[in-house]
Each structure stands twice: as C-alpha cells, then as structure tokens.
Specification:
Length: 514
C-alpha cells in the first residue's frame, strides 16, 4: 500500500511541475508577451527551484523521511498555487517599473519558485522511503524518476493540448492546488489512518469550494468593455470594446482594431498594406498570412480581389467571424502555419501579405532567407510581398535586418513609413518584388482622397508612398534558418509596445491583461 501511494505522489508531483511551468506563460504572457525571455525566465526559475528542492529535500530526508513531512510540503505548495490568481495582479503592477527583462524574472520567481522548490523536495523523500537497501537504491531512484518524468510528459501534453484551451488558467491553477491537497491527505492517511484524515479532507473540500466560488475572474461584469476572453493552444485572446472601437488582443498585444459601426480597420498600417494593389492594373489574387480580425481580407475583397488567408490559430478564425463581422464571402481561410501552407501549395499569387508578426512574438521561421525564398516562389510574375513590422523609428535595426534579408532574395525592396516624426515607434511596411517596384497609379488618384482628413486611410497611403525609401543595408545581417537572433529584436520592440499599450488602456477600468 505504501509503495503504491509513493508512486501516486511521485506521479502527481511530476505532472504538477510541468503543468505549472506551462501555465506560467499564460499567467505572465498577457502582461509581458510570450517571448523567448519569458520562456527563459520560467525555465530558469523551474530548474533553479528544483535544484534547491532536490538538495534540501535530500538532506531533510536523511534526517527524517516520512509521509507526514511529504504531506506538509505538498500542502504548502498547494496553498501557494491557490494564491497565485490573487497575487499576480498586484505583483505585476509593482514589478512593471523594473523593466521588462527583470520584471519577468522577478514575477516568475515570486509566483513559481516556492511551490516548485517544495515539489522538488518530494523525490528524495520518496527514494528514501522506497529504498529497501543500498543494493537497490539505484534501481529505486531510477524507477521513481522515470515515473515522475513520464507523468510530466503526459501532463505537458494534456495542459497544452486540452486543459488550457478548455478550462482556462485560473480554474486550472486552482485544480492543481486541489490535487496537491488531495495527494497530501493520501500521504497522511498512509501514515496515520483514513478516519483521522477524513476531518481535514472535509475541511479542504469546503475551503476549495469557497476558493472556486470567490476566485478572481475575468468577465464582462467585472471588466467593462470586455467582450470575450478565450484561451487557445497559441495564446490568450481578448476582444475589447473601447472608445467606439473593437480590439483583438493576443497575449496582451493589439492585433486588430476596427470601428464598430463600419467594421473597417482603424489602424494606419492596414491602409498602407493596400498599396500593393496600386501596382496592378486590375484586381488579382492575394494571400494573407495572419488573419487577425480579418480587416485586410475584407479590404482586398472590397476591391474585387480574390483573397485567401492562412491562420495558424483556429480560435482567431472563430473570433474574427463572431466578433469582427468576417463573412464567408470575404475569402477562403485555411487553418495552418503560413510557411507550412506555402510549402504544400503550388498556387501563385499577385500579392502576399505577411501580417503575422506581433510585438512580443516574431515567428522566426517566417522571416528568414529560406522563408522569403519560398514566398518568392509562390509569387506570380510581377508579384509583390508586403510585410508588416513594428519598429522604434524608421531606421530601427530590425528594419535594416529585414530589408537585407528580403534583398538577398528579391530584386527590389522598399520601406513605407507610417508614423511621424521618423523616430516614433510604430508600424512600417516593407515591399519586395522580383521586378522594379513602380506603381501603375498613385494613391492620389483615388477620388475619395480628402487631404483635410489628417488621419484617414487615404492620407496614410499618400503619406507612406511620398516618404518611401530604400534602406541602407550595407553590413546588415541576413536572417537564416541556421542563424536568426530575431527574438532579441522582438524583445526590445515588445518592451516599448507594452509600455504604450498599458498607457493606452490606463484611462479605463478594462481588465486587459493584469
């Protein structure tokens, strides 16, 4: 019986450790963005906590290994995990002035180090209790570690593929705490007896029920303007109404903003992404990589282009249809990774719009020389690639790097700036083609252009084209599948973007990401 309980305890501990590490991205990601630095912080905290836990647990186990002590560690870890939903909001606010990199490490340490360290202390106790003699201690340690690791594998798959998308972050955190409580009671029952364990079990069940009832939640009632919050395998998605506009936020970053009366995009870059149409005498065929709310799809469809979109996240597609007025007639949508889709299709497009780069996450496999070569092979003669990139000013290094990488594949590359003055943070559009980029007509030819509408879409097109430039790419680094440090640049951009985002929503009571 005792050996069987030990196996259960070790399995639960292994499962909770991996689930907690993965959950960390959803607890902190909406505020900081899910970047390589967040993953690095979580992995470092996890490994450091487990290392100290193993060392401390081993010494304590040599002095007095017992089921009751294991139960004590499990209980404290469970209490800490149950407290995370209440601790994270004030902690995130306090850590923000520390700067993105340090704040991520600080919050990850405070929230996750203590329970992970306590869970790391369990295995040495289990080995000490299970080992019958020194002759079998190697086999005992190997079997228990293998069981714990196998449980971690199963937990990682379940957490990412099933639990987070379907039951949410807060409920899952509370559930992990409950599982540790129940496991602690099981250990207590082995050493004491089931009758004595029944009283604390009843108390735990009652308290946990209260926690679930009063758990901090994100809903329309406690967050004015919040239309929906959904979890997907790829991120946390929130739909928010603010000042007559509807926003789609992915991991806390704005990916779409539309007017709720017309459903037209209100972000400047969306208007500038229409400029490739001016290089063709008649509507053609376009592919959009990265759907968002579907604004670009509708803009091209409105001018009679045949359009398709590739979106990796099926929940994004669902949100675009349900909350951003995307209709089946607006274009065909394929749920797939952009590069994978391009590799599997032989279709040719006049325009390919690459709009899959968020501030916190630039998919590295979509911005390499190999990826752009694949895109080039899917462009018809005279075809154009348009890439939307966030940068800190017109001469940001990320623009130079992207331009150099594009130039290694395409004949002509130019940059369309949007924000003023040139040092301002914002979006820039890069155009690339295997022919000279000469438009058939200019944006001024549009009869609806109103020069007095300073921030209107037609003005944005004219401004971008009038200020287009060919970047200086001398000595610039070319991104490849083998060597691609774009995550470093993405983190720098993400820090500035998060500061602006927090200021943008600061005047409201909308619970955006913390």
């Amino acid at each position: 019986m005792k050996n069987f309980v030990l196996y259960i305890i070790v399995s639960v501990v292994g499962a909770v450790i991996l689930a907690l590490e993965i959950l960390g991205t959803r607890v902190l990601g909406p505020f900081y963005g899910v970047s390589i630095f967040l993953w690095s912080a979580l992995i470092s905290v996890t490994l450091a906590a487990l290392s100290i836990g193993y060392a401390v647990g081993g010494r304590l186990a040599d002095n007095n290994a017992s089921f009751s002590r294991i139960s004590r560690f499990l209980t404290i870890a469970g209490v800490w995990i149950l407290a995370i939903p209440w601790m994270k909001y004030p902690l995130l606010s306090m850590a923000e002035p520390a700067g993105l990199r340090f704040a991520v490490l600080l919050t990850a340490t405070v929230l996750f180090f203590p329970p992970l360290m306590l869970l790391g202390m369990i295995n040495p106790f289990a080995i000490k209790l299970k080992a019958l003699s020194l002759d079998s201690i190697g086999t005992t340690a190997g079997n228990l570690n293998a069981l714990s690791t196998l449980a971690s594998v199963v937990s990682a798959l379940l957490t990412g593929y099933v639990l987070i998308p379907n039951i949410g972050v807060t409920v899952l955190l509370l559930s992990l705490g409950c599982v540790l409580f129940l496991t602690a009671l099981l250990g207590l029952a082995v050493e004491k007896n089931l009758k004595r364990a029944s009283v604390p079990l009843t108390i735990v069940v009652f308290l946990v029920a209260l926690l679930f009832f009063f758990a901090p939640s994100i809903s329309k009632n406690n967050s004015p303007g919040l239309v929906a919050v959904q979890q997907s395998p790829y991120g946390e998605l929130r739909t928010i109404d603010y000042e007559g506009q509807r926003h789609l936020l992915i991991d806390g970053g704005i990916h779409t903003r539309v007017d709720t009366t017309t459903w037209n995009s209100t972000v400047s870059y969306a208007a500038v992404m229409e400029l490739p149409k001016y290089f063709f005498e008649k509507p053609g065929k376009a592919l959009l990589i990265g759907l968002g709310g579907g604004s670009l799809l509708k803009q091209y469809r409105y001018h009679f282009w045949k359009v398709e979109a590739v979106e990796i996240d099926p929940v994004v597609v669902q949100i675009a249809k349900e909350y951003f007025h995307l209709l089946p007639s607006d274009g065909e949508i394929v749920v797939s990774d952009g590069r994978q889709y391009l590799a599997s299709t032989s279709k040719q497009y006049d325009v390919i719009l690459l709009d899959a780069f968020g501030s916190s996450s630039i998919p590295f496999h979509l911005c390499t020389k190999e990826a752009f070569s694949l895109i080039s092979s899917r462009l018809a003669q005279g075809g154009i690639l348009a890439v939307n990139v966030e940068a800190n000013g017109w001469d940001d290094p990320i623009i130079t790097t992207f331009s150099a990488t594009l130039k290694s594949v395409f004949h002509d590359v130019l940059v369309l700036p949007i924000e003023e003055p040139p040092s301002t943070f914002g979006n820039l559009i890069l155009l690339a083609s295997n022919t000279t980029l000469e438009p058939k007509r200019l944006p001024e030819d549009n009869v609806t252009f109103d020069p007095n509408w300073r921030y209107g879409p037609e003005y944005q097109k004219v401004h971008a084209w009038d200020n287009h430039f060919f970047p200086d790419i001398r000595n610039a680094k070319i991104l490849t599948d083998e060597a691609n440090p774009v995550d470093i640049e993405a983190e720098r951009i993400n820090y500035i973007a998060r500061q602006q985002l927090h200021k943008y929503f600061a005047r409201t009571q909308i619970n955006v990401s913390w």
